């Protein structure tokens, strides 16, 4: 979800468009560590270490790049329940290897750097649209594009490609096994974490830590978003036993209680502490809080309906004419192509680094992309200093090279949750060290090329944000407003005392309000955009939250154990 930024804007009186200055406030601010940062960190280290050590023993460390194409998929899906993870990761591995295969074929068929950059840019755009359509989550399209863009500049005979992709498949199978292994210890861990996040957000709201103005509205939005994410996670559960249905029922009722916390206008510290206690119980893996018995829960779960297309339909929807993701895809394609061609024109030896840099900076809007570009450049500077110190040690032996890459991988995942620029301090040496699997180059060449490609990629990537404006961003607000109006009408027409129906209507309204706020945040960060209907949005949100409070009275309550 986009970060919220509030900045002054100037408005053109004739056209009604707004010109927003590009912000730098908060670019370097450090956040707390993410609650599950260690899961992708350990997973990717294990999934990468095993094939690298096997290939080292076989004397084929040159194949480590292809193994990493599958192994890096271990970074994904750690927020999904294990059954959903088992369904999603194979598709992700297939997508990774499809892009990698297309890049390898291109590298084999042509020596033209111009064409290779163009293909890498198109692959980057497709990766971005499909990742956005499926909401695959962090690290999104960047890792997929990094592998594919690298392979686009690795010429080889066509006959060698199937074997290299087979190595990638083996790495993907290992990544799947590593990501599913924790289910043997805590089979319900992901859904419990999702519900705990909703309870913690509701506790912060009820504690009165943020009382007034934008901060209060932000706390409400964050709570609604966490609740919505929890419902989405529970929707992915497909229990087949009575025990599974009862376990899901407990979590459903806890999320309902987090929803009810949105109705409070005053601080209630005792309620906040109870919510935190429930969240702690869920995170520790112990028995969850008891729930009022509900005999009908086995046949009438309180889950909301799916919002929008999903699965294959979501993928096809991303590519259809008129899709809101097409402007983003066009922006990525243009930015990556300009970056790669600019690097080529400057005589830099690694144009794909510029392509990956451009792909990594594109965020939900121009303002956030500008901030990400600054973070990428600043983090890369520090990362090159670290790389200069690490490279001599990594060249002592292949084993020290593998160890250096694994340490950088772990530190990247740990630091990325604090701020993107801190993550890049370790991501930069890791990416450079991985090139050592294929061929060793002088330190000065690597550092110079990386620095130039980073600057070229970031600069031309931002330029493409202005060359390819996202006019659809403003239109999304109108669509979101209509959805909120429809949900509010359904809430006003509700005349039943059935708590399950009240919960369903309330969730539809809560989802619509979350989507409206996200649409406003995206549009408000575009540099050149039509004036936003701020008053209409404020009225819709105020009325929507009032109705949420009214409906909360019909929701059941959870009693403490």
Automatic annotation (TrEMBL):
Principal place of residence: membrane
Record's bilayer topology term: Multi-pass membrane protein
Presence of the UniProt keyword Magnesium in the record: no
Domain Integral membrane bound transporter: from-to ranges: 343-463
Membrane spanning stretches: 41-58, 64-82, 89-107, 165-185, 373-390, 419-439, 451-473
Keyword Transmembrane helix annotated: yes
Protein name (Swiss-Prot/TrEMBL): FUSC family protein
Organism of provenance: Microtetraspora glauca
């Amino acid at each position: 979800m986009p970060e919220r930024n509030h900045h002054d804007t100037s408005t053109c009186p004739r056209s009604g468009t707004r010109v927003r200055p590009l912000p730098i406030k908060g670019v370097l601010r450090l956040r707390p560590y993410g609650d599950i940062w260690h899961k992708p960190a350990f997973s990717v280290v294990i999934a990468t270490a095993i094939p690298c050590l096997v290939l080292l023993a076989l004397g084929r460390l040159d194949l480590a790049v292809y193994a990493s194409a599958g192994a890096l998929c271990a970074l994904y899906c750690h927020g999904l329940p294990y059954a959903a993870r088992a369904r999603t990761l194979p598709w992700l591995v297939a997508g990774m290897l499809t892009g990698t295969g297309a890049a390898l074929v291109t590298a084999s068929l042509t020596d033209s750097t111009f064409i290779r950059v163009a293909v890498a840019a198109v692959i980057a755009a497709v990766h971005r649209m499909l990742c956005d359509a499926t909401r695959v989550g962090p690290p999104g399209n960047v890792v997929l594009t990094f592998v594919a863009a690298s392979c686009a500049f690795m010429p080889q005979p066509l006959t060698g490609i199937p074997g290299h992709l087979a190595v990638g498949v083996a790495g993907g199978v290992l990544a799947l096994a590593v990501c599913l292994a924790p289910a043997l210890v805590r089979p319900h861990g992901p859904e419990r974490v999702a519900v705990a996040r909703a309870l913690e957000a509701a506790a912060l709201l009820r504690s009165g830590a943020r009382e007034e103005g934008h901060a209060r509205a932000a706390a409400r939005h964050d709570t609604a978003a966490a609740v919505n994410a929890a419902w989405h996670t529970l929707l992915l559960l497909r229990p087949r036993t009575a025990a599974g249905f009862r376990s899901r029922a407990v979590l459903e009722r806890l999320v309902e209680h987090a929803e009810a916390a949105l109705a409070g206008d005053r601080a209630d510290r005792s309620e906040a502490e109870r919510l935190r206690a429930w969240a702690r119980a869920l995170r520790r893996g112990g028995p969850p809080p008891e729930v009022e018995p509900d005999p009908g829960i086995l046949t009438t779960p309180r889950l909301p309906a799916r919002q929008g297309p999903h699965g294959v339909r979501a993928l096809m929807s991303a590519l259809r004419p008129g899709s809101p993701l097409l402007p983003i895809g066009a922006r990525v394609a243009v930015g990556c192509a300009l970056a790669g061609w600019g690097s080529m024109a400057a005589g830099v030896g690694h144009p794909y680094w510029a392509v990956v840099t451009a792909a990594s900076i594109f965020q939900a809007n121009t303002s956030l992309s500008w901030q990400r570009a600054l973070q990428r450049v600043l983090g890369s500077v520090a990362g090159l200093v670290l790389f200069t110190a690490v490279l001599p040690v990594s060249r002592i032996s292949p084993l020290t090279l593998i160890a250096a890459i694994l340490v950088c991988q772990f530190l990247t995942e740990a630091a990325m949750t604090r701020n993107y620029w801190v993550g890049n301090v370790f991501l930069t040496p890791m990416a450079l060290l991985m090139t050592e699997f294929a061929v060793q180059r002088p330190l000065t060449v690597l550092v110079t090329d990386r620095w130039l490609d980073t600057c070229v990629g970031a600069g031309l990537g931002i330029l493409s944000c202005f060359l390819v404006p996202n006019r659809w961003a403003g239109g999304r607000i109108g669509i979101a407003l209509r959805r909120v109006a429809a949900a509010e009408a359904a809430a006003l027409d509700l005349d039943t005392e059935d708590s399950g129906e009240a919960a369903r209507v309330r969730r539809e309204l809560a989802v619509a309000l979350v989507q409206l706020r996200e649409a406003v945040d995206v549009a408000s960060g575009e540099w050149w955009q039509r004036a936003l209907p701020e008053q209409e949005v404020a009225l819709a949100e105020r009325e929507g939250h009032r109705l949420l409070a009214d409906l909360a009275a019909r929701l059941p309550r959870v009693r403490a154990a």
